[in-house]
Amino acid sequence: MSHALEATFASLIGKRVTVRLHDPEGGFRDIVGYLESPVTLRNRHGKLIEFSHDEIALWKEVIEKK
Fold first, then answer.
1. Is 66 within the bounds of a domain?
2. How confident is the model at residue 24 (pLDDT cuts 50, 70, 90)?
3. What share of the chain is helix, strand, coil (3-state, %, to 5)?
4. pTM (2 d.p.)
5. How many domains is the chain partitioned into structurally?
């Protein structure tokens, strides 16, 4: 795990993010929710999803419209 990525994700705890992960069977899958730790987020259904920084293809913070 990259220390820079870990530090970035640590600073985003509590923020809404989208993360595109490499799927083991090929392709990608997206997860969206509020970051609870550098390796977990809670989706809109309340489910806690764990991921590894090694799986990440892309990510970004989701800026909510007011």
1. no
2. confident
3. 20, 45, 40
4. 0.86
5. 1
